């Protein structure tokens, strides 16, 4: 019965998708899960040959088709607008935001299995979707939850490696160090050393990726408890799903915080391929570095303030507003504070984006969560005020391409409300979630045999000469 209800919901969404085919025609939209198989690896095994043929066909039939011209602005502007990567798991539309395998965030909230009726999606369901392009059943999600639980163990040397760092080291440094220490277990590295045939590369990559996804919450929780709770760690609870268990190991037991963590892990997982962390993971993996090496590199990119660290910066900035002006700050005062930030040569964290040109739907769904659960929270009300005040100021600046809030503008106040107040830790949560997206694509990189990434670079002299000739 549940299956048929979800099929009918899916067919409604599918007909809407046909109307929106301009947005979603490049993705395998909403394949209804017909198989009852509970094993994700077998699902992938079935899908891979079909997708390998598809890629071969694209190469042979369209290999010489032009996708646009490269301008000097693009070369000097961080490759903005240059199409140059294959990334199967998600696609970003500048106005509409992210779609995971064709599904927008509200659609994921409707069709992915939840822990309770009408609740937030379980991240395991999103992982299944990212890997297969199919919406899983609740049974498949439960089975994947158990698989991840069974893989969630950490060798002792990982904790010792983290302990070798000062407890004051930035949480992202401790987290990335832990991930690097996990690398000694890499199945891919072992198989490569034994001379595995390249057609089988995806198999140990799958093992590493699933182990890594299962292990990162434990490493992250260890860092949190080490830094902020005197090293008093909390063992995993095998009865809980991925998001709830992560919150539990951090020390949060309320069902609302469990829901928040499910939503958080789901929406931060993937944002197509060109953002700094995803691109770094993909680039490093293109040298056949294993998932641990690739993901640790991605984390180092995520730790930059223009990317993942912005979530830390937002809460610290909001707290500085409150410290200076109080919680009941007027819009005029807030506007002055925003100008003061800009005039001191800083960015307003949580606003703007390299690709998006409208409010980030990841912001919107967190706002909806706040409206439902914490409408009276003073910091949430301040975030709402910022939504009104900041965009006109950034627009007035005249150079900002997107004055609207991004995902990071909201996440901190939600976490802060439930007691996770240590802003310097926030990017680690983002990192745990990113493992789902980066590792899913990495498995497909190997299955599709994607090549070493090696774009051409040029000097200023080369550019000057080329432009004079043009
Ligand atoms: C995300 C971000 C790095 C995108 O950068 P981008 O693609 O270069 O953005 P733009 O093309 O709009 O930038 C044009 C100019 O506006 C500035 N700008 C963009 N967003 C800004 C912001 N939130 N506050 C102040 N200035 C901003 C840029 O710094 C740049 O200035 P410059 O020409 O003097 O170097 C940028 O918007 C930013 O720094 N935002 C704040 C940090 C943040 O929230 N990061 C998380 C992103 S998910």
From TrEMBL:
Record keyword rRNA-binding present: no
Gene Ontology MF terms in the entry: acyltransferase activity, acyl groups converted into alkyl on transfer
Listed GO CC annotations: mitochondrial matrix
Gene3D superfamilies: Citrate Synthase, domain 1 (1.10.580.10), Cytochrome P450-Terp, domain 2 (1.10.230.10)
Transmembrane segments: none
Signal peptide annotation: none
Catalytic residues (UniProt): 307, 353, 408
Biological processes, Gene Ontology terms: carbohydrate metabolic process; citrate metabolic process; tricarboxylic acid cycle
InterPro entries per record: Citrate_synth-like_lrg_a-sub, Citrate_synth-like_sm_a-sub, Citrate_synthase, Citrate_synthase_AS, Citrate_synthase_euk, Citrate_synthase_sf
Coiled-coil residue spans: none
Short name of any one Pfam family annotated for the protein: Citrate_synt
Keywords for the protein's UniProt record, in alphabetical order: Transferase
Protein name: Citrate synthase
Annotated organism of origin: Solanum bulbocastanum
């Amino acid at each position: 019965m549940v299956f048929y209800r979800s099929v009918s919901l899916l067919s409604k969404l599918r007909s809407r998708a046909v109307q929106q085919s301009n947005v979603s025609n490049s993705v395998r939209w909403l394949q209804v899960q017909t198989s009852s198989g509970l094993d994700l690896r077998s699902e992938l095994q079935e899908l891979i040959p079909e997708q390998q043929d598809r890629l071969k066909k694209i190469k042979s039939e369209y290999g010489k088709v032009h996708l646009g011209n490269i301008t000097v602005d693009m070369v000097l502007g961080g490759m903005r607008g240059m199409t140059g990567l294959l990334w199967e798991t998600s696609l970003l539309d500048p106005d509409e935001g992210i779609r995971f395998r064709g599904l927008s965030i509200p659609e994921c909230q409707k069709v992915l299995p939840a822990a309770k009726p009408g609740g937030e999606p379980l991240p395991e369901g999103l992982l299944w979707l990212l890997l297969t392009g199919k919406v899983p059943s609740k049974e498949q999600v439960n089975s994947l939850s158990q698989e991840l639980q069974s893989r969630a163990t950490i060798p002792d040397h990982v904790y010792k490696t983290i302990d070798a760092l000062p407890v004051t080291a930035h949480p992202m440094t401790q987290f990335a160090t832990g991930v690097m220490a996990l690398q000694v277990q890499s199945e891919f590295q072992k198989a490569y050393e034994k001379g595995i045939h390249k057609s089988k590369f995806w198999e140990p990559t799958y093992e590493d990726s699933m182990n890594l996804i299962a292990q990162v919450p434990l490493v992250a929780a260890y860092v949190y408890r080490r830094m902020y709770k005197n090293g008093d760690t909390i063992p995993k609870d095998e009865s809980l799903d991925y998001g709830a268990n992560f919150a539990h190991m951090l020390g949060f037991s309320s069902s609302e915080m469990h829901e928040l963590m499910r939503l958080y892990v789901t929406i931060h997982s993937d944002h197509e391929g060109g953002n700094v962390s995803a691109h770094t993971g993909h680039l490093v993996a293109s040298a056949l570095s294993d998932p641990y090496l690739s993901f640790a590199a991605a984390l180092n990119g995520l730790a930059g303030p223009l990317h993942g660290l912005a979530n830390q910066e937002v809460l610290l900035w909001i707290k500085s507003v409150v410290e200076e002006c109080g919680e009941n700050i007027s819009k005029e005062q807030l506007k002055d504070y925003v100008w003061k930030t800009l005039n001191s040569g800083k960015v307003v964290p949580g606003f703007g984006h390299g690709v998006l040109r409208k409010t980030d739907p990841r912001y919107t769904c967190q706002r909806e969560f706040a409206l439902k659960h914490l409408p009276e929270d003073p910091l949430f009300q301040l975030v709402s005020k910022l939504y009104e005040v900041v965009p006109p100021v950034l627009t007035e600046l005249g150079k900002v391409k997107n004055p609207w809030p991004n995902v990071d503008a909201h996440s901190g106040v939600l976490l802060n409300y439930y007691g996770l107040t240590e802003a310097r830790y926030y990017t680690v949560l983002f990192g745990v979630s990113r493992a789902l997206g980066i590792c899913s694509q990495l498995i497909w990189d190997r299955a599709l045999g994607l090549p070493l990434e090696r774009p051409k670079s040029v000097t200023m002299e080369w550019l000057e000469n080329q432009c004079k000739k043009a």
